[in-house]
Amino acid sequence: MSRSPTPPTQLDWLSLPPDDAGAPEATAPAAVPWPWQIPEADSPLSTLDRALARFLQDAQPSTEPRHAWLAALVSHQFGRGHACLDLDALASQPAATLGWEPAALQGLPSALGRAADDLPWCGTLGSPLVREGQRLYLRRNWQAEQQIRDSIAARLALPPLAPAGLASALNQLFAPDPLVPGPDWQKVACALAARQRFTLITGGPGTGKTTTVVRLLALLQDNARHSPQRRGQPLRIALAAPTGKAAARLAESIASAVQRLPAPLQADIPEQAQTLHKLLQVRPGAGHQPPPELALDLIVVDEASMIDLDMMARLLAAVPPNASVILLGDKDQLASVEAGAVMGQLCEGADAGGYSADTVAWLQSVAAVDVSPYQGAGGALAQQTVMLRFSRRFAGDSEIGQWASAVNQGQMAQVQALWRRSPRATAAASASVDRLEPTQAHDPALASIWQRGWSTWRAWLSAVTASTAAVDDAQALQALVAFNRFQVLCAVREGAWGVDGLNRRIAQALGLPTEGWYAGRPVMVTRNDYSLQLMNGDVGLCLRHAKGLRVAFADGHGGVRWVQPSRLDAVESVFAMTVHKSQGSEFEHVALVLPELPVAVLTRELLYTGITRAKSRLTLVVPATPALWRAVEKKVVRSGGLGAAARPAAS
Ligand SMILES: Nc1ncnc2c1ncn2[C@@H]1O[C@H](COP(=O)(O)OP(=O)(O)OP(=O)(O)O)[C@@H](O)[C@H]1O
């Protein structure tokens, strides 16, 4: 079989150094038999995984077949979102680690971990693979982790900031609330973020991440305006999020939280947020351009759980070393689509706190908050990590909150009790969580869920389609708001319970065409389009505009952008979307549809993310309950070196 040349993207992906920087020289292929013992067609290894192994073998032949296996497995794990191949996990739990069926595992050689000891493609300057302890990386992932760790450590090592009058400002902004149990974590988060240049704030929906940050920004700006060193100059602040939708939502929540501040504190808080792609000038196909140098004093990034390794490394490199970085997110949500679980790993241990005696004493003195029950041996990062625990959205006996918490904590008995307690979806329109166990995808009860979910939007649509008048901007915005109140979320794309099939059947149930452009068609952009300024995940509605059929997108500034359907080459109907795509969005009412079988992607994180997209109503569509139980049991573990265990011990 001929050895195919390596595509340029693969070199880029390995982060190989230039030819003269120590890269292994190509030599004739070794005379060892190619090590795959399973037919290519049945192998869970992709062409790319094999190509990488071949490339390395060609460049620097090894007589040990297990070396090629290791290289292919590192690539395989990268493709599954892991930052590295965890050799311990591979040895102890190969099936769970690789996600392979028993038949595929039979082809796997034994003692692969031992073969990693003399792997020829790692260990030298610029080598394509890097081993750190029991973790084997593609060099680029290792570099990204290093950059993230170094940048965070450098920020945490700077002398603490000491905004004047911090204690009184905190007291002014955070009045005691007897309804909130335990320490005032919002006040703690604000205090810690004011003292150091890197802070992680994690919390479930409605726990007050935005409110806290807005109060922090008010406090810091007030301080800056009164600081003689700054001569009245406010801080330069940027707000960002990984997707267009998340950025728009952040801007909206910030604007509304600013309104609730005392008037003198409202000045100089930005109300525009941008995507990380735009801020960091990431262009598809542009290769690895150096990150821009951002001129700012502080950046707040929301939905940080969606940020992958590469993007986080780029972000931290772009922010000046003495500027503050505040990451907001929910550590328990689905990790990024691309490799890494940066937020989840950096926040490991956040539940327990792990605050040092110094931090506990400092918080007591400056914020009058007692976090001594959360004292522990966390490292420097733990001192700057806060978990907000009280949800004002899902407080008390909120059923969605109970579902979210039981699923998140893997409490199977509680999930089963909640399931039994939920009424059938069509019976009680007032229940905040209801459920349906359809026997087949054409179950008429499903059609009634879709019709009821979009009833306001459909009424609006029939009224405008009955009229010959064109739709104006205000009407288009109303239509988008009405449409976005309800959303069907699926765990998978394919099959009867996946996005593709459901989109068609929902359109039929609503009496709409299943193909082509028509007034009322909701679409989602599936690829970033920089010329149209549309981002992957943006949702628009096709409507009858004065110039003909146009797709209306909210522009994020209270206006509408109209785009000709013919210019949109990467869109799909969006009655249903995957839970992955829904990250960063919320809807009044969510119908969460599970597949019949417990497929690999159906995990606790996916369920939790889907459930928490619902603001006031959740309809669970579960054709077979074992899939639900299995998902609750299945927690995703992504291998990587940013977790607490890999970080330096307590400082
Ligand atoms: N300390 C507080 N006092 C009063 N209301 C608060 C407080 N903190 C948050 N809220 C209210 O709770 C709701 C949720 O707060 P916020 O939007 O800040 O949470 P979040 O964690 O950013 O939510 P999301 O999950 O939407 O990102 C808002 O209506 C906000 O006004």
TrEMBL record:
Signal keyword on record: no
GO MF, any single term: exodeoxyribonuclease V activity
InterPro entries: AAA+_ATPase (IPR003593), Coronavir_polyprotein_1ab (IPR050534), P-loop_NTPase (IPR027417), RecD (IPR006344), RecD_N (IPR049550), RecD_N_sf (IPR041851), UvrD-like_helicase_C (IPR027785)
Residues binding ATP: G203, G204, P205, G206, T207, G208, K209, T210
AAA+ ATPase domain mapped to chain residues: 195-348
Region feature Disordered, mapped onto this chain: 1-30
Residue ranges, compositional bias (Low complexity): 17-30
Record's keyword terms, sorted: ATP-binding, DNA damage, DNA repair, DNA-binding, Exonuclease, Helicase, Hydrolase, Isomerase, Nuclease, Nucleotide-binding
CDD domains: DEXSc_RecD-like, SF1_C_RecD
E.C. number: 5.6.2.3
Keyword field contains Nuclease: yes
Assembly description: Heterotrimer of RecB, RecC and RecD. All subunits contribute to DNA-binding.
Family according to the record: Belongs to the RecD family.
Note: In the RecBCD complex, RecB has a slow 3'-5' helicase, an exonuclease activity and loads RecA onto ssDNA, RecD has a fast 5'-3' helicase activity, while RecC stimulates the ATPase and processivity of the RecB helicase and contributes to recognition of the Chi site.
Protein name, UniProt field: RecBCD enzyme subunit RecD
Organism field: Curvibacter microcysteis
